[in-house]
Write a structure and sequence with these properties.
This protein has three helices and 18 strands. The protein has a domain of 63 residues: SH3 Domains (SH3 type barrels, Roll), CATH 2.30.30.
Length: 209
């Protein structure tokens, strides 16, 4: 039986980092990168700065009380996604003009989308921290965070099955499939089954093939 090294010991922390001072001073590489995405037809013309989008109301910012669908994608809300890269600015509102409050630095970490507005998604992490990120910074690849320390990774979805590895709290694993109460996950070269109750990043009733 193998022990999987804790995520925090080998990668960036799960908790988002506070806004760097460089961003507070106005050096925003994300804004510059997105601003560079213009078409050839707009090059050489007088730039037009669009007005900042209206903020959604407070109810739209909070996770919906009941499952619903997103106004931009028609996908379920809330729903889980993962962080595509290792540097994602988390803003106070859905536009580049809004303040950056956090920076997510852990590629692959699962996030819950709770609201949509244009090309922006309001996300929340396992600790309830988050804000608005551009949709291009998110991935549909499904991952989970191990919530229980020394969680057994079973060879089949049965607590009496042989144990392939022990997962430390904070390990990020990719979802292979999920049944009603169990998910088969993989991380660090190990694969096996873990109960949903020990994972964050998958719905209690979610079934994934």
């Amino acid at each position: 039986m193998a022990l999987l090294v804790a995520a925090g010991a080998q990668a960036a922390p799960l908790r988002p980092q506070a806004r760097p001072e460089a961003l507070a001073a106005g050096h925003d590489s994300e804004a510059e990168a997105l601003a560079s995405l213009v078409t050839d037809t707009t090059r050489g013309t007088t730039p037009v700065v669009p007005p900042a989008p209206l903020m959604p109301d407070a109810q739209a910012l909070a996770p919906p009380d009941e499952p619903t669908t997103g106004p931009e994608t028609n996908l379920p809300l809330p729903r889980y996604v993962s962080l595509k890269g290792d540097n994602a600015n988390v803003r106070r509102g859905p536009s580049l003009s809004h303040r950056i409050d956090w920076v997510f630095t852990r590629a692959g970490m699962p996030l819950m989308i709770t609201a949509e507005y244009g090309n922006w998604r309001r996300v929340v992490d396992r600790e309830g921290l988050g804000g608005w990120v551009h949709y291009s910074l998110l991935s549909g690849a499904r991952t989970v965070i191990v919530d229980q320390d020394m969680e057994p990774l079973y060879s089949r979805p049965d607590a009496a099955a042989p144990v392939n590895a022990l997962l430390e709290s904070g390990v990020i694993a990719r979802i292979d499939r999920c049944e009603r109460d169990w998910c088969r996950i993989s991380s660090g070269g190990y694969r096996g089954w873990a109960p949903k109750s020990a994972l964050w990043g998958v719905g209690a009733e979610e079934v994934l093939d």
